[in-house]
Amino acid sequence: MKFRSRVSRPVLLILGLLLALKVAVVAAYAAGLRINATASMPEGVYWLRKYSAGSIGRGTVVTVCPSPAVIALAAPGRYLGPGPCPGNVEPLLKHVAAVAGDRVDVSERAVRVNGQALPNSGRLARDC
Fold first, then answer.
1. pTM
2. Which neighbouring-strand residues pair with 117?
3. In the predicted structure, residue 23 carries a pLDDT above the cut 90
C-alpha cells in the first residue's frame, strides 16, 4: 500500500509568499532599513548609512550600542530588544546633541550644550 501526500496549490502559494517575505525582510535589514516603534525617537522607517567621523554633526541621527551600565539599568524593565550589540541587545537611535569642542553640562534640571538647555532633558520624577 502506497501513501501519497499532496500539497495543494494554495498552500504552496502561501509558503512561497512567506519565504519571499522572509527574504525581503533579511535583504532590507542588510541594506540598512530599520523600523523604530519606540517612544525614544519618532516612529518610522530609518535608512542607515555609514558616516565618516568628521561628517557627523548636531542633529544627525546615529545608532549606538548601549554601554554595560545602560544595559544593566534597562535590563530589568526589558527596554532593549535582542540585537547585535554587546550584551545581545539592539542598538539605540539617537540624535547627536554635541560635537567635539562643545561644552556639555548635566544637572537634574537639564542637559545643556554650550549653555543652551536641550528640550525635555531634565530628570524625570518617575519612569514612563
1. 0.68
2. 112
3. yes
